[in-house]
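Now for a specimen:

…
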Amino acid sequence: MLIQIDESSKTLAVPVPLTSPAGKVRIKKRSCFSKYGEPVAVKQEPFSQLSYVEWQIGYDIVAKDSEKLMLTTLPDEKYMGANGKTKVLYELSEYIYYFYRWRIIKKGTLLNIKKFLQNLKMKDFVDYPANFAIDRSHPVKKQFLGIDFFYTQVKYPSLVHKFAPYEILVEITIKEKQRAVGVQPMLYLCFPVTELALKKPLLGRTAETNEKADFVISRANIDIFINILKIFGILSDNHNKDVLAILRRIMS
């Protein structure tokens, strides 16, 4: 769904689906960020203080994807992606575009991020093997139900950045690429369900069918999204090129 833009209050309301466990947004629960988040069946289990939103936030849409193109309010704001495809500002870049246009985000702020990202070398990126490698233990023989196996453990690197004073986090997990050689860092924005705005409080009740709630972006929390864009720019060389192109498009 499209974001709701309030020009008078200079806020954006991002609709967050609460009942789509297979989508980019999922409701999970855990007692602290160092614990593994468990998916929640929100139509059966009531929301609690342990409930949080895990959002695989993005920053663009491929221009040729007509279905997804309907999800952005900026279909004409295009740039050339690192993969050679024409892309359109969406989600993260979309939010920053509006707050820059409203002069809440200053040009100097974006120029500082641009300068920082331009100075990075290949060895500086999160996906550089020497920085955060996937760890595989040496295989050992193990019998299970009368069948001989070789048993090994695979540990995926995970990075967490907390945005003080909020209980809002960015989590980065490094995994193997599914359709290519190498690894890919996956970025997730995580925040308590209490950060969501809706008329009927969530805590203590279950979700209604196809229920959505708003995450409101304002001048009070836009710095979080500026920093997420910066973090995207350190994930890999391709992410870096994309973010630099986005910054140029926004400031053009």
Remarks:
- The chain has five helices and 16 strands.
- Residues 237-251 form the longest helix (15 residues).
